[in-house]
Each structure stands twice: as structure tokens, then as C-alpha cells.
Design brief:
α1 packs antiparallel against α2. Helix content is 90%, strand content 0%. It has one domain.
């Protein structure tokens, strides 16, 4: 295995990890931003107001997008395992 193949595999690993985590992190970031704006406008500084909706949105996102995330991860892992015989030629 040469360095180009190793760097390509590492690039695929980081890209897949980012792609899998992006929907949940993006939605919780958006909800956190909207709640922060609401707290600034109303001057309500309750910590549970910011945590509970983010947990709820993250749970719903995992339920809705979980099958897609799992398929993507399985595709990456099967592709990685399937290419092992071709790496050492």
C-alpha cells in the first residue's frame, strides 16, 4: 500500500464521518441558535430551555435519519473491507 492509497482511505473516512454527523449536529446547532435568539429577546436565562429542545431535535433526527446514516456507514465499511485484497498488490 502506498501513501496515495492511505491518504485516499483517510480522506474517505473523514468525509464519511462528516457526512454522517452533519445532519444531527446541524439541526442541533440551528435549534440552539434559534433558542439563543429567543432567550436574548425575552431575557429568559433558563438552562433547561436550551438543553431540552436540542436533545429532542437530536433524538428525532436520529430516528428519522438513522437508517440513512447506518446505510452510509455500512457502505463505507463494506467498501473498505472489500478493497483489502487490492491494497497489497
Amino acid at each position: 500500500m502506498n501513501k496515495e492509497v492511505a491518504l485516499g482511505m483517510l480522506s474517505d473516512l473523514f468525509w464519511t464521518g462528516m457526512l454522517i454527523s452533519l445532519p444531527v449536529l446541524g439541526l442541533t446547532l440551528l435549534i440552539g441558535f434559534l433558542i439563543s435568539i429567543f432567550q436574548v429577546i425575552t431575557q429568559v436565562q433558563d438552562m433547561s430551555l436550551s438543553v431540552v429542545p436540542k436533545l429532542f431535535v437530536a433524538g428525532v433526527a436520529l430516528l428519522v435519519l438513522g437508517p440513512w446514516m447506518l446505510r452510509r456507514l455500512i457502505y463505507f465499511a463494506s467498501n473498505l473491507w472489500g478493497n483489502i485484497p487490492f491494497l497489497f498488490r
